[in-house]
Amino acid sequence: MRPSLLFAVVVAVLESPGLSVFGADDAVLKPRVPFDQIEEARTWRNPIPATEESVEKGERLFHGKAFCVTCHGKDGKGFGGDIEPGTLKGPLPRNFTDKEWQSARTDGELFWILRNGSKGTAMASFVPLILTEEEAWQVLRYVRSFVNDEQGVR
């Protein structure tokens, strides 16, 4: 294929509706909380102060009791070691290192997902079956630390 034709094809693909740069899933930025509940969820604030200690507690829960690491991975990128290719139904687990996604979602929305799960994905409800509400908020402190230095450990 001639270089100019190849360039034209690449530009056309990247500018196609529904595709972001490098083929990222546009659905990543769409809220998972139902429309009729999202405004309330967005008002919820994390009651756990952003301290090194709270982030560390969240990290222990993420890697232990809550087993978030299984799907979201040690590095938070959404490729856990226990995921076999083709075994998940729906979208891949969230990449917590994605700054655009992090800034688009409020803590309240993320808490809602921990409490209710995420329809159409493998994300199940964790509160109160696995985590207490306080533990869920601690996990969210750690999740935020993947892109936010002021959260304590990153």
The largest pleated sheet is described as:
none
Number of strands: 0
Average pLDDT taken over every residue = 80
Distance between the termini: 45 Å
Gyration radius, in Å: 18 Å
Q: Given the C-alpha coordinates, what overall shape results?
A: globular
Summed up, the helix count is 7
Strand content: under 5%
* Fraction of residues in helix: 40-55%
Regions with little confidence, pLDDT below 50 for 5+ residues: 3-24, 150-154
Helix-strand pattern, N to C? HHHHHHH
What structural class should be given to the helix and strand makeup? mainly alpha
Written overview of the protein:
With 154 residues, the chain is mostly helical. It has seven helices and no strands. It has helices spanning 3-14, 35-43, 52-63, 69-72, 99-104, 107-116, 133-145. It is globular and about 40 Å long. The model is unreliable at 3-24 and 150-154 (pLDDT under 50).
